Amino acid sequence: MDVSIDTDHSYGAAVIRDCNNRIQAIYSTQLNVTNPTLAEALMLVCATEFVVKCKLRKVLFFCDNVTVVNHFNDYAGEADHQLLNGVAERFKRIVLSLEGGRVQKINWGHNFMAHNSAKWARHHAAVGELAVNSIDGEVLLDDTKWFPDPG
């Protein structure tokens, strides 16, 4: 999952894949925050709520924000992060119904599909489960950053 920040809000997207790396769903939501760390944390909670709603059980979450990953996995090794405490607690309550539910760090360069999906959702003001066949093919590439057509 990843986020795309605008001037007064952001959009987040989660790409849900099966164990064979096939896209099962893409979920997007608008977030009323512009702080990147808080936006990623909130999107992680939204993605968790979505996978629970979809009745998925075995889930591993990938996030490119190391602060969020560390705080949500309880190994921050630092004082409480006031911005993330409530969001992390909400995440921890939701993942109790899942097998696993850990957050793993992913390098930004390997997270392009999630970032591109968030940017596409922001560009199209799209929220909810997105129809994968309606998304530009370039958005769904793992190794390429998508640049929307300015025209």
Care to describe what's here?
The structure is a single chain. A four-stranded antiparallel sheet has the order 1-2-3-6, with helices on both faces. Strand 2 (10-17) and strand 3 form a beta hairpin. 32% of the residues lie in helices and 25% in strands. With 151 residues, it is an alpha+beta fold. The protein is built from four helices and six strands, in the order βββαβααβαβ. The protein has a single domain (2-140), classed as Nucleotidyltransferase, domain 5 (2-Layer Sandwich).
Summarize the structure in short.
With 151 residues, this protein is of the alpha+beta class. The protein has 4 helices and 6 strands. The protein has a single domain, classed as Nucleotidyltransferase, domain 5, CATH 3.30.420.10.
H-E string: EEEHEHHEHE
Number of E-type strands: 6
| Fraction of helical residues | 25-40%
What CATH first level would be assigned? Alpha Beta
CATH H-level homologous superfamily name: Ribonuclease H-like superfamily/Ribonuclease H
Name the beta content range: 15-25%
Structural class: alpha+beta
Strand order of the largest sheet: 1-2-3-6
Could you say which overall geometry the principal axes of the C-alpha atoms support?
A: globular
Rounded mean pLDDT score:
92
Rg over CA atoms? 15 Å
CATH architecture: 2-Layer Sandwich
Number of domains: 1
Unreliable stretches (pLDDT < 50, length at least 5) are none
How far apart are the termini? 27 Å
- Main sheet properties: 4 strands, antiparallel
Number of helices: 4
Q: Kindly report the CATH topology.
A: Nucleotidyltransferase, domain 5
GO molecular function, one term: RNA-DNA hybrid ribonuclease activity
InterPro entries: RNaseH_domain
Pfam families: RVT_3 (PF13456)
Protein name: RNase H type-1 domain-containing protein
